[in-house]
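Summary for the steering committee. The consortium agreed at its last meeting that each partner would contribute one worked example illustrating the joint modelling workflow. Our contribution is presented below. We chose a case with several input lines so that the handling of multiple components could be demonstrated. No manual editing was applied between input and output; the record is shown as generated.
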Amino acid sequence: MLPMMIDVYGNASSIHHFGQTARQKLDASRKQVAGLLGAEPQEIVFTSGGTEADNLAIFGVATGGHVITTSFEHPAVLAAAAQLDHTLVPVDGSGMIDPDAIRGALRSDTKVISVMHANNEVGTIQPIAEIARIAAEAGIPLHSDGVQAVGKIPVSMADLGVSMYSISGHKIGAPKGVGALYVRKGTSLKPMMYGGRHERERRAGTENVAGAVALGRAAEWIAEHGEAENRRQAALRDRLEQSILDRIPDTRVNGAGTPRVPNTTNIRFDGIDSDALLIALDLKGFAVSSGAACSSGAPEPSHVLLAMGLSRLEARSSIRFSLGRSNTIEQVDALVEALVESVTHLRKLAPSYA
Amino acid sequence: MPKNPLAVAMSGGVDSSVVAGMLQARGENVIGLTMQLWNQRRLPEIQSDKATGRCCSLDDVYDARAVAQHLGIPYYVVNFERDFEDQVVKPFVDEYLAGRTPIPCTLCNNFIKFDRFLEMAEGVGADRIATGHYAQIRWNPDNGRWEMLRSMDRAKDQTYFLFGLKQEQLARSMFPLGAMEKSAVRELARELGIPTAAKPDSQEICFVPNGDYAAFIDAYFREQGIAPQEVAGELVTADGHVVGEHAGVHHFTVGQRRGLRVAAGEPLYVIATDPASRRVTVGRDRELLSDRAYAGDVNWISIAAPAEPVRAEVKIRNKHAAAPATILPTSDPDRVEIRFDEPQRAVTPGQGAVFYSGDLVLGGGWIE
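What follows is the complete predicted structure of the assembly.
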């Protein structure tokens, strides 16, 4: 990425040779990203990240019409849909969307359906292909927020049958500030930003070449190493989950028993306040979260867990653990020890936990 | 082995920033925590750019974080908005509607700072907390009690707001500024290189912009979707003559002179408010005098609950010069009678009565 910011400084839309070098890098990256998704390069629109990709998918096709989405989407989808006439399809207690509920929400003026591929907080994988068939029957484009799925499970646009699909750089090893929206050929999409004719007139603004190159490189890395790495992370995650369930009483996995991405687990520790546990763990060197980072500091517990039917208290006792490429088995074991200590301490102080 | 962590309640202001800095310089293992208590974007109609002395704005969190980064200490924001609304804001509104004049800062100290916050600190492994309050705590081995004393800087003393603290809360709390002059605190802030060293002191009630509590209560009701209840009523004299009208008892506090809009030969003051009849009684200055008061929910700090009458200087509002009085126990152990040596002006229900013996805070209760 660094050479892109120093040596290949040209504007990819310029005619001169500096620009042409940048253009070549951009095109190569587009091809790499398309390759990861099983898409054509011209179907990839680079964006500033997952939020912009989600917003573009919704406002680009649904303005003036009706949107169907789900109650446990990322705020980038929920808050965008909230600007339009929309229906929220509920999620069940295990963190799954029922495709028939999507069918039931269809209206004559529905312009887009948006269902996330994998949930960011509990990791459950949604039946996107099945929902895509319902969408196709109704002739309505299906968007899927794939930010948490790409790189963690195999993703193929052809198999999923979606019209649009969002990805984010910093969830797959590229920097923050870059992402992409897959837009299937033939999908009519209006831009959100107006300006130059970049990205086939779907996203105005000088291309972030360095970011796109990093996204392309990350996509290439996943194509080569993703499967093995995900197997490794799944084993670590399972070890973490099992050790917690074995060693700490009154714990349960939110979204257990459903297909989940390999790096995430969301665990409820009865009787503890997740904010206190989060700080205690951070002071011991373990960075975990109590929901989405985007909503930390808010007084409300996770909307995802509430949507899955957890009580406020149960949602407030839940912690989300996400593993990454740098995590080791030793770290997982040390985390379990820290958890045993902190949860025991917090429960001793909790009046509600007898 | 590092020392047990110590949690500092950081508001983003100079005082709590200096506390964090001086404890760190003393070799303590300091953790900075900011309590998010109120969302300043609520009730937009009463907000103004000129509002002073507000807490919990994004700027304050930004300032506290900058101080923590400058000191290189771990820092977290903890959200107590829900507790604050339930334990402080709602009782504040209810008290005004019941014709009393509440002190939200005391409720916040009792139920948020020295309860929820203390609990959070202990949860994350900090067995003690420190705040920027101007007050002093010391252990008295003779009677086995934690005593509270007025701060060295008399002008900054905050013991009036701390009368509700129990022994177990005092045992785990530190007020490092209690023995310092404010000017020395500012100087230390500059020496420590604290980025907010020149920030003005906060004033008024933190969640009420510009001190206009009546506007806050009106706006809070609108936000809660509570129909603007019929709150208007009459201004009457002690002998029952109607002399004017008013827009709700929550606009008045005992001793208030401004805003009565009554023409009279001599200045008129609020003597009493009665929410049931929505009548506000007004009268002359001398009608405000009373020689006794009752206080409930009494908390004894530096001495155990006395069985016999005790002599004390009693403060009946923050700016009051403590007046000599005798405190008499009643049949209810939580309730006392206060007999002032000289009649006191505007003894106001809802305010605190805090008992001092010189600098020592004996205890205090809520004026009935």
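Residues 2-222 of chain A form a domain with the Aspartate Aminotransferase; domain 2 fold (CATH 3.40.640.10). Chain A touches chain B at residues 273, 275-277, 279-280, 282-283, 297-299, 342, 345-346, 349 (CB under 8 Å).
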